[in-house]
């Protein structure tokens, strides 16, 4: 049953790993703004979708 | 057709002014230009996220010239090394997802910008750019040209890099980490099953639990020890003393238990307690990052002004470098930063930010102009009399009230209760100890520690944060933004309310316009309206909005004479609109001098005058009537008493009206009331109320636009919600009631726990059940009650 030592130690280390990740995330300011990222993730490269804009990019390239 | 809004900004398009471009309709050239910029850079998706999200770009010629000044520039930049620079700009217009999108795609419009990132709640954009390719000035111009004018004020000049305090988040993280793991590890102990392998591993589990409890005990809870120590030092018993005592005793006893192999100790309860209390703290701090409650004149004053040198060359200088005798150039819409003497012939100065008065004041050459006014009209020159810090308005901030730490000003309800709680608790602990010591020494120590552990007022300490945190959010949703939870207690205690007049109980949005004189025919109304259209003077704008809609005519000749009026010819008629002197009639004919009026003369015939009266806010009379039943009401005004008789008819009897008050006098007046034992709430709006707002027990600032400006205060109330002031007062009183009710509830838990403790039967398991149970019931009780009160009060209104 001494495997319990190993198991518990491993689980604690995994937990500590996540904890460190959390600290790093806070430190880098990821939790300072909790609204903008939720909007930002919904944007993609919108400009490429509409055909109209494709035309204008071509025009620009020609210039 | 005209009902349809502008494609860019959404404003209704005036007839004849509609601009068709690219199949879209625009209200003005400014909006069209923004659209052109966007379509040129493939950014028309801007209009897909939100309908007409834009703002019309303002004329900003010369406004950002000071950004060429290296010294000022280096103060504004957040980071600069080599050619990489980072700047964080405040943009009040940020309001929707389109804004985020366009501002984060700035690099497509302007070369040299590498990254721009929006912080929506703070309404800021952080731009990383190559300073060799693009200057901050051109970024400012670019932003302005697309309708996102950055707001740069003196505040930015000093702030530099502000460090965000994230220690509470760290503490909470540590506490949760410890709490969760300890809970898992103590699980086997809860079911006291005699099993070989469990007994075998007990020491290992306990050592791990002990080690895990250390960070929570030493780091997460450290705030409580500091606070307890401070309060003992200042001989004020606050709630943190029993908390700190409970935590320490719990830790010592649990360590003792583990070392002596008596049991598993209370580490699970200990860490749980620390975690929940920190959670409460976190919940109480509801920040409105886009608002600032600490604003003084600095966030309002510009960073730099244009100085005229001896050799008539112009130069941008930082405000702090302006000295007596300098000559300054003030452009249209620029702020006068210092007291001085007007050199130019005439100027119109709008003091609405200072006094709340919407109508600008005319100054002549040689008149004194005070800092804080906004110049309207042509460029003027002035000579400096005082430096910034010595000006009439800014001197107010040297008053000691602005140096004080607000937190020490008031005592909280929790602290008041704990003044009784702590001695009683110690009494019980010692009584239990004294009783048991004659029977069994060992039990005596157990009882003593158990009392301190179980009575640790975690539920008590949690009620206030959760109630206030919830009320804070409820009020915030209804556009009453409180600085912190302490304000709620202050609001509940208020017995005297002092109102500022101009801008607070009156609105500067619309004015009550009354016409006196011989009747004007419809044709003439049409002519007047068309003449007014070309004028930018606030009075003209107000009158223009007041007159009925009409068709457009071409104005042949238009001349606006600063400080006097308008002279225009239209349809072969000469129209004069302006002051009595301008029209050529004596003051006697014009009636009372104190009235603000526009006189009308068409050709040679004098028609009459439009009088502008203060427009009181909707629901003012009803609000005062309800409030007068419970509170002493007073109105303080910086104006003369011309409005006295009018106010007396509107406001209930017994309302004290005091006129001609200077900013310092307002502050003194509040102070005197407080010395008499009154708890004063000040409701104001302008910079001249700043002193009174700071001195009062609760200072509320009324704001037409919460994003723009409000002086330092405890709460910001949206002007549209002004008539509901009594509701907010009632709600804060109810929240105190809720706290008192839940105090009773938590004391009940304490009594149950104590009965276990005093008899010497407190097992770790019992403690581990009672503590979270009391916490959860208290938190849910408090949340339910505050939601109930907020909505039931709503219905009764």
UniProtKB/TrEMBL annotation, chain A:
- InterPro entries assigned to the protein according to its UniProt record, in alphabetical order: Cyt_oxidase_maturation_cbb3
Record key words, sorted: Membrane, Transmembrane, Transmembrane helix
Q: Where are the transmembrane segments?
A: 6-26
Per its UniProt entry, which superkingdom is the organism in?
Bacteria
Q: Does the keyword Thylakoid apply?
A: no
Give the Pfam families listed for this entry: FixS (PF03597)
- List the PANTHER family: FIXS PROTEIN (PTHR41532:SF1)
Please give the name of this protein.
Cytochrome oxidase maturation protein, cbb3-type
Source organism per entry reads Flavobacterium frigidimaris
UniProtKB/TrEMBL annotation, chain B:
Gene3D superfamilies per record? 3.30.70.100, Calcium-transporting ATPase, cytoplasmic domain N (3.40.1110.10), Calcium-transporting ATPase, cytoplasmic transduction domain A (2.70.150.10), HAD superfamily/HAD-like (3.40.50.1000)
Keyword Translocase assigned to the entry: answer is yes
Asked whether the UniProt record includes S-adenosyl-L-methionine among its keywords, one would answer no
Residue ranges of the HMA domain? Answer: 85-151
Query: Which keywords does UniProt give here?
Result: Cell membrane, Ion transport, Magnesium, Membrane, Metal-binding, Phosphoprotein, Translocase, Transmembrane, Transmembrane helix, Transport
Q: Pfam families attached here?
A: ATPase-cat_bd (PF12156), E1-E2_ATPase (PF00122), Hydrolase (PF00702)
Q: Where are the transmembrane segments?
A: 168-187, 207-227, 239-256, 262-280, 420-439, 445-472, 737-759, 765-789
Q: Report the subcellular localization.
A: Cell membrane
Which membrane topology term applies here? Multi-pass membrane protein
Please name the NCBIfam families in this protein's record: ATPase_P-type
Q: Which PANTHER family match?
A: ATP7, ISOFORM B, CATION-TRANSPORTING P-TYPE ATPASE-RELATED
Task: Give the family from UniProt.
Answer: Belongs to the cation transport ATPase (P-type) (TC 3.A.3) family. Type IB subfamily.
The protein depicted here goes by the name ATPase
């Amino acid at each position: 049953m001494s495997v319990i030592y190993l198991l518990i130690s491993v689980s604690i280390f995994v937990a500590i790993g996540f904890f460190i990740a959390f600290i790093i995330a806070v430190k880098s300011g990821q939790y300072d703004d909790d609204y903008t990222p939720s909007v930002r993730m919904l944007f993609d490269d919108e400009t490429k979708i509409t055909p109209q804009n494709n035309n204008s990019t071509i025009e620009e390239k020609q210039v | 057709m005209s009902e349809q809004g502008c494609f860019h900004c959404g404003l209704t398009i005036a007839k004849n002014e509609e601009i068709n471009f690219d199949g879209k309709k625009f209200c003005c050239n400014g909006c069209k230009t923004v659209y052109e910029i966007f379509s040129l850079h493939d950014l028309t998706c801007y209009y897909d996220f939100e309908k007409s999200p834009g703002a019309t770009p303002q004329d900003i010629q010369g406004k950002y010239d000071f950004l060429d000044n290296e010294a000022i520039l280096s103060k504004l930049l957040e980071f600069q090394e080599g050619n990489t620079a980072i700047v964080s700009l405040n943009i009040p217009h940020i309001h929707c997802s389109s804004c985020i999108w366009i501002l984060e795609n700035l690099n497509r419009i302007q070369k040299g910008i590498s990254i721009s990132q929006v912080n929506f709640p703070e309404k800021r954009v952080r731009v990383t750019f190559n300073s060799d390719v693009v200057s901050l000035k051109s970024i400012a111009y670019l932003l302005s040209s697309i309708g996102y004018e950055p707001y740069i004020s003196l505040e930015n000049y000093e702030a530099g890099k502000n460090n965000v305090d994230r220690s509470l988040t760290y503490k909470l993280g540590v506490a949760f980490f410890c709490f969760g793991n300890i809970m898992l590890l103590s699980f086997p102990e809860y079911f006291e099953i005699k099993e070989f392998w469990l007994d075998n591993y007990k020491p290992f589990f306990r050592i791990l639990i002990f080690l895990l409890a250390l960070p929570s005990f030493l780091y997460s809870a450290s705030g409580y020890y500091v606070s307890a120590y401070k309060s003992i030092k200042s001989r004020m018993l606050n709630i943190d003393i029993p908390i700190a005592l409970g935590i320490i005793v719990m830790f010592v006893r649990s360590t003792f238990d583990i070392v002596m192999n008596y049991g598993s100790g209370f580490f699970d309860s200990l860490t749980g307690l620390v975690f929940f209390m920190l959670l409460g703290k976190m919940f109480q701090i509801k920040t409105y990052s886009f608002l600032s409650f600490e604003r003084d004149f600095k966030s309002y004053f510009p960073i730099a002004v244009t100085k005229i040198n001896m050799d008539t060359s112009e130069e941008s200088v930082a405000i702090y470098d302006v000295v007596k005798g300098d000559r300054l150039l003030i452009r249209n819409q620029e702020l006068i930063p210092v007291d001085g003497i007007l050199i130019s012939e005439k100027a119109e100065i709008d003091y609405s930010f200072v006094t709340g008065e919407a109508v600008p004041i005319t100054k002549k050459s040689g008149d004194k102009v005070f800092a804080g006014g906004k110049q309207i009209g042509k460029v003027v020159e002035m000579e400096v009399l005082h430096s910034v810090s010595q000006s009439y308005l800014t001197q107010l901030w040297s008053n000691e009230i602005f140096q004080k730490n607000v937190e020490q000003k008031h005592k909280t309800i929790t602290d008041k209760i704990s003044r009784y709680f702590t001695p009683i608790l110690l009494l019980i602990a010692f009584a239990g100890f004294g009783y048991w010591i004659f029977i069994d020494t060992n039990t005596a120590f157990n009882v003593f520690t158990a009392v301190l552990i179980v009575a640790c007022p975690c539920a008590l300490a949690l009620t206030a944060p959760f109630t206030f945190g919830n009320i804070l959010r409820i009020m915030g949703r209804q556009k009453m933004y409180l600085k912190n939870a302490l304000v709620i207690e202050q609001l509940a205690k208020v017995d005297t309310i002092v109102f500022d007049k101009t801008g607070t109980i009156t609105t500067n949005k619309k004015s009550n316009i009354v016409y006196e004189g011989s009747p004007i025919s419809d044709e003439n109304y049409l002519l007047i309206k068309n003449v007014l259209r070309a004028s930018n003077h606030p009075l003209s704008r107000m009158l223009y909005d007041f007159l009925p809609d009409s068709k457009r005519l071409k104005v042949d000749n238009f001349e606006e004479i600063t400080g006097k009026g308008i002279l225009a010819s239209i349809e072969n008629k000469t129209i004069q609109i302006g002051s009595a002197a301008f029209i050529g009639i004596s003051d006697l004919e014009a009636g009372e001098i104190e009235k603000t009026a526009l006189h009308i003369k068409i050709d040679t015939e004098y028609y009459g005058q439009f009088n502008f009266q203060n427009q009181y806010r909707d629901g003012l009379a009803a609000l005062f009537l309800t409030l007068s039943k419970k509170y002493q009401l007073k109105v303080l005004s910086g104006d003369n008493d011309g409005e006295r008789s009018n106010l007396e008819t509107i406001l209930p009897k017994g309302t004290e009206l005091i006129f001609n008050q200077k900013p310092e006098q307002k502050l003194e007046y509040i102070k005197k009331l407080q010395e008499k034992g009154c708890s004063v709430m000040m409701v104001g709006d302008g910079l001249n109320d700043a002193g009174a707002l700071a001195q009062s027990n609760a200072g509320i600032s009324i704001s037409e636009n919460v994003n723009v400006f409000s002086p330092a205060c405890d709460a910001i109330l949206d002007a549209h919600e002004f008539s509901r002031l009594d509701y907010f007062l009632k709600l804060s009183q109810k929240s105190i009631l809720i706290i008192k009710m839940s105090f009773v509830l938590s004391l009940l838990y304490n009594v149950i726990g104590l009965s276990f403790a005093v008899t010497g039967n407190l097992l770790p398991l019992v403690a581990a059940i009672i503590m979270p149970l009391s916490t959860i019931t208290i938190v849910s009780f408090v949340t339910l009650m505050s939601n109930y009160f907020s909505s039931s009060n709503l219905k009764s209104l």
